[in-house]
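Hey L., structure's done. Input below.
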Amino acid sequence: MGKVAILVPREEMLYHAHNILQEKSKSKKHYEIGDMKVVRTKNAVMEARQSIAGGASMIIARGLQASLIKQYTDIPVIEIVITAQEMALLVVKAKQILKKENPVIAVVGFQNMFCDMSYFDSIYAIELRTFYAENNEDLRMTTMRAVEENVDLIIGGEVAVETAAQAGIPSLFLSNTEDSIRNAFSMADSVSYAMEVEKKNAAQMETLLDYSFGGVVNVDGNGKIIAVNALMEGILGQPRKKLTGSFLTEIFPDLDHVRTERMLSQGGDGFSTFLMVNGTSVFAMLAPVLIEGEVDGLILTCHKMKKKVSTNQQEVQKKRTANGLIALGRFEDILQESPAMQDCVHQAKLFSLSDFPVLIEGEAGTQKRLIAQSIHNASFRSRNAFADISCRGLSEEEQFLLLFDEKGAVLQVDGGTVFMDDGEYLHPANQYRLLQLIRYKICCGKEPQRNKHADVRVLFALSEPGRLERAVETGAFRKDLYYLLKGLCLNIPPLRECREDVKQLLENTVRDCCERFDRYHVFTPGAMEALLNYPWPGNRYQVENFCERLVLTASKRLLDEKMVLGVLTELFEKAERKQDLQTANTKEAAQTESWKDEQEELLVKTLKKYGGNRKKTAQELGISKSTLWRWMKKYSLFDENII
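Output:
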C-alpha cells in the first residue's frame, strides 16, 4: 500500500486513527503513514501539498477539507463519512434530550460528510431535515436557516453548535467514532489495490508497446493520444512527448475521420485501412477499447508495407521517371464527399496492399485511371514504374508489341504495375499471355525461348460495367482469365449515385473556369438542384465540359435554372433523343397528339401536387428522374411556370 496522509479537523479523530493502526499492525496489516495532523480548513490545501511532496500517494480527510483537497490536488482523497450507526447514536441521544414524540431534528454540515439517512424518519419516529452548506463561510447562514424553521434540535460541527446555542436551541456535536475512521481505512485499502492494478496494467501496456512488432498508438475516449511505442515514433518521425496529447486524426490525416469519430462515440467493430505516414506505406488497424460496453479509447496498430529502395533501384527509378513511366494520381486527389465514393476508395486502399490483379469497373468518366494510379502509388510497388495501355482499337500484333514484346510495357515496368484499360478488347492470344503473366510471372514472347520472367502487377479496367461477363458468355474472353481477374473487383460508382460529389465537382469546376477566364459566376439554388437531379451519363467528363461551355457563354453573374437547362439541352438533348428512339417501344412511337396533351396535363398536375418535388413526381408517375427531366424539357415546364 502507498503512503497515506491523515489530515483531519479534530484531535479525537487522530486518536481513533491511532487505535485502528495499532489493531492493523497486530494483524500484520501494515500501513505506511506519512503525516497525521489536525489542520484548519484554510490551511488544508497547503498541508495536503506538503504531504504529497513528502511522498503521500493518498489522503484521508473529512468534509469541506476533503472537497478542497480534491479540487486542488491530483491524488486520491478518501473522505471520512459519518456512518449510519454513528448517526443513529446521535439521533437516539437527541430524543433522550428532547423527550418528545416525533421531534424535528436538523442535521447541518457538508453533504459529503453524511451517510444515506433516507429512512431515519420512519425508523426512529422523527422528522429529519438536512441543511447542507456550500463552503465554510456559508455554514453559519445555513444553520440560521435551520433555526428559522423552528427545529427542536441541531446536530452539527462547532459553528452549528455555537449558532444553535446563541439561538437558544439544543444541539449535539457531530463527532466521529472509530467506525467511520475504520471505513475510511477500508476504502483506502480498495483505492490502493486499484492503484496497484492500474500500475501493473500500465507496466504491461508499456511492455506490450515496446515489444510489439508494429507501431502502436493508445488513444483515450476523447480521441487524444496517451501513449505510443518506439516503433511508432520511428514511423512518424516524431518523439512520443510531442505526439502525446495530440488528436489521433491530426497525426494521421489520411485516417477516416467519420468512422473514427463514430467508433469513439458508438463503439462497434474495428476496421483496417491503408495509410501513407511520413512517406511510408502502412497497413493500419483501429479497434475500440471497451469497458462494460462503453468506449474508453482506441488502439491503432500500424505495419510498414514498403522496403527501402537500394541505390541501384533508385537509378532505375530515375530512368523510368525520365521515360514517363510514372503514376501521378493519389487517393487524396479523388473527389470523395459521398458515402458511395468513400466506400470505393476505402476498398481500393485495401486492394493496394495485395499483389493480386484488380478488376476495375465503371462508366466512362468515373476516374478509373486515377484510381489505378492511386492503387499503384499506395502499394509497395510505388517506387517502381507504372505503364498505362489501352487495348481498344488495336490489332493482336499491336497489342503484343505494346505489352509483351521486348520493348513492351511488361518488361519495361518489371517490378511495377501495368494498367490495361478497355481490357475486354484484348485479343485471345494476348489473353493467354496475360494469364501466364499473372499466374506464373512469365512474359511470353513469339517463341518459347524468348519467354522472360516479369514481376508485374496488373490493373485491368473495362470500358463499361458488365462487358467482361458478356464477352465470356459469347466466348470472346477466356473463362480461366476471367476468374483470375474477378477476385479483387472494384466498382466505381457513377456520379448519379454520388450527389455530394456532383455538387463539389460543379462548384470546383466553375470556380476553376472563372479563375482562368477572369470571371465571377455562381449557381442559384434552383440551378444547383436541377444539375444535381440530372443523371450525368458522361460523369466527370460531361460535368467538366458542361461547366466550360456554361462559363464561356454565360451573360450574367447568376447561373439560374433556365440557363443551365438551356446549355444541357443544347449540348446533350440530341444524343439523348437518339437514345430514347433506340429504346422506345412500338406503343410509345405510335402515341397520338391527344395522348401527348394528356401526358402534359398529367405531368403538370402531378408536379403541382408535390409542389415541384421531382423525386416524388417521378415516383408517382412510375418513371425515373432522368425521364421526368426530359418530359419537363419537352413541355418547357420549369419551376416558375409550375407553381
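DSSP finds 28 helices and 22 strands in the chain. Confidence is low (pLDDT under 50) at residues 306-311, 318-322, 580-595.

-- N.
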